[in-house]
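Reviewers of the previous submission asked for a worked example of the structure-prediction workflow described in the proposal, so we include one complete record here. The input consisted solely of the amino acid sequence. No template or homolog information was supplied to the procedure at any stage.
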Amino acid sequence: QVQLVESGGGTVQAGGSLRLSCSASGRTVSPYGMGWFRQTPGKERELVAAINWRATTTYYHDSVKGRFAISRDGAKNTVYLQMSSLKPEDTAVYYCAAATARTVTATSTVDYWGSGTLVTVSA
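From that input alone, the workflow returned the following structure tokens.
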């Protein structure tokens, strides 16, 4: 089993930056695809960014391209989401996700979820 714990959420003004961290325990996530999803009340969870197991391929939702960057550190068993130029519409609970299938492409591909961290961007 893999446990994922997110940290780094909080409240920031529009235009500001935050870095989310996802620390994995239980086993190494080096062979897994990793991703970050976000969800707001009444909406489906959407994939924001993903990185494959070798960190050779990344994916970004169109709404965050050029502003967010996903990375992973195998030695620390941790995945990061650097968020810059934040907008009020980025406000959501952000979830870390791991997929044994080497890449995260949708909620259906996720095997492990974190409990989420709230990001609030004020105007």
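The CA atoms of residues 45 and 107 lie 8 Å apart. We consider this example representative of the routine output the project will generate in years two and three.
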